[in-house]
Amino acid sequence: MAFEKQTFWDDVSNAGSIGIAGHIRPDGDCVGSALGLASYIRDNFGKEPTVYLEELPKAFDFLTGGDKVVTGYPYREEPFDLFISVDCGDDGRLGKAMEYVKKAKKTYCIDHHATSNGFLENNLVKPEAAATAQIIYTLLDDSKVTLGTAEALYLGIVHDTGVFKHSCTTRETMEIAGALLDHGVSSSRIIDGTFFEKTYLQNQILGRCLMESILCLDGRVIFSSIDRKTINLYGLAPADTEGIIDQLRVTKGVEVAILIRELTPRSWRVSMRSCEIVDVSKICAMFGGGGHVRAAGATMSGSRRDVINNLTAEIEKQLINRE
Ligand code: AMP
Ligand code: MN
Ligand code: MN
């Protein structure tokens, strides 16, 4: 069903209970979108949505409502009147929050993934938007935005644009970020404190991934991998490897960067980034994942070599087609 803004707010206004969830392994946009929307609803409708996330990365827990986030998807008998999924394009990525969705009386999806498949009753999907937080802002009345909402949405935009540097950043992105700053957001607190600041451990693993990275396809592709042994040795959480892929991508001459992390033996979490030619969302979708043209992910099984060979073969096809 098409999304209708007024109907959405009428549904929020009429709902006795509201649930909000984002995708598994939540990133800044996912957390910022969920908490920003929850804050706005709390401030303007006098109701408290329940926000479900698989986990809340430590760097984001200062956000308003961070202390109320429910992790671990506890069983809930009662159906929600309204359930809103943010920054997630399909049921697999919503994880166990799908249980709440299945029972909910009304469901909405607000998302920007190119591979978003319209999996809920009402879907607002804008692949051209740099972040889901950016889409959420366009639904709000700016005069009713509080600092808590503004901080969360600004954080979402900062993270999905890599601090306004990815090609998805448009004039609208900058204008919305500017409007959020007018609400008193401290950009340095969000940018340095949640994006650039790295723990010693994060820097160590970044260094290791860069040192062990391998160039292939005439230097057009760079890849690196983190196996179970390394993950266990350092006690790495998924958030500890954020940003590594971005450093790989800016290697001179590289079109595509790949980082794979072993989740369980022979099952790999794949992250891909491209610069200007290869559509990585297409490649990830072929292996059951998805994402955006320049940033995508998937989970693949097999040996490290199998995974890299499968991905580079697809990259090569796209590069050859372009020549
Ligand atoms: P990541 O490399 O995990 O940071 O993911 C890059 C982008 O692709 C993010 O916007 C993710 O939300 C998206 N993405 C990652 N994995 C998937 C997937 N399996 N399905 C759809 N989108 C994904
Ligand atoms: Mn996300
Ligand atoms: Mn996003």
Model description:
The chain has 13 helices and twelve strands. It is of the alpha/beta class and 323 residues long. The protein is globular, with a radius of gyration of 19 Å. Residues 23, 27, 29-30, 87 line the site of one manganese (II) ion. The site of one manganese (II) ion has 6 residues, from loops.
Q: Over the alpha carbons, how many angstroms does the gyration radius reach?
A: 19 Å
Query: How many strands, which pairing sense, and closed or not: the largest β-sheet?
Result: 6 strands, parallel
Question: What general form does the structure show?
Answer: globular
Total strand segments = 12
Q: Which CATH architecture of the largest domain?
A: Alpha-Beta Complex
Given as residue ranges, the uncertain stretches (5+ residues, pLDDT < 50) are none
What ligand species are in this complex? adenosine monophosphate, manganese (II) ion
- Give the ordered list of helices and strands: HEHEEEHHEEHHHHHEEHHEEHEEH
